[in-house]
Amino acid sequence: MGTEAGTAVIDKLAWLRVEDGRILSTRSYGKDTYYLPGGKREAGETDHEALNREIAEELRVELVDGTIEFAGVFEAPAHGHPDGVTVRMTCYRADYRGDLEPGAEIEEIRWLDHSGREVSSTVDKLIFDWLRGRGEL
């Protein structure tokens, strides 16, 4: 977690996978909120390395090298954290190999349309709206 002007910032990466007007989302064990798949970098990792690792852990698939492309950066208050904590989500799109299945701490994988924003984290709501504005959700 970084600090900017007295504000704590959680720096995360997310995979935006949209198919048929729905976005891939996940719910962890014991949680009632959905999050886009991804996570935090480990020391020395590039964005692509971290995203590949997180997606393999969470969804048991491999992102296809050469298809990973930057989509955008979104910031919002961090869900489940004290006031003043912000999440900065750097998002990428990519194709994948394998069959999606829950791994690591993931209890459920769901494809959500725009109405799914209501059960998603604050930063994910911004991404849902951005995708809707682009005609994707």
TrEMBL record:
Taxonomy, superkingdom: Bacteria
Keyword presence, Calcium: no
PROSITE patterns linked: NUDIX (PS51462), NUDIX_BOX (PS00893)
Hydrolase listed as a keyword: yes
Gene3D superfamilies, alphabetized: Nucleoside Triphosphate Pyrophosphohydrolase
Listed SUPFAM superfamilies: Nudix
One Pfam family, short name: NUDIX
Keyword vocabulary terms for this entry: Hydrolase
Nudix hydrolase domain mapped to chain residues: 1-133
InterPro entries, sorted: NUDIX_hydrolase-like_dom_sf, NUDIX_hydrolase_CS, NUDIX_hydrolase_dom
Cofactor requirement: Mg(2+)
GO molecular function: hydrolase activity
PANTHER family recorded: 8-OXO-DGTP DIPHOSPHATASE-RELATED, GDP-MANNOSE MANNOSYL HYDROLASE
Protein name per UniProt: DNA mismatch repair protein MutT
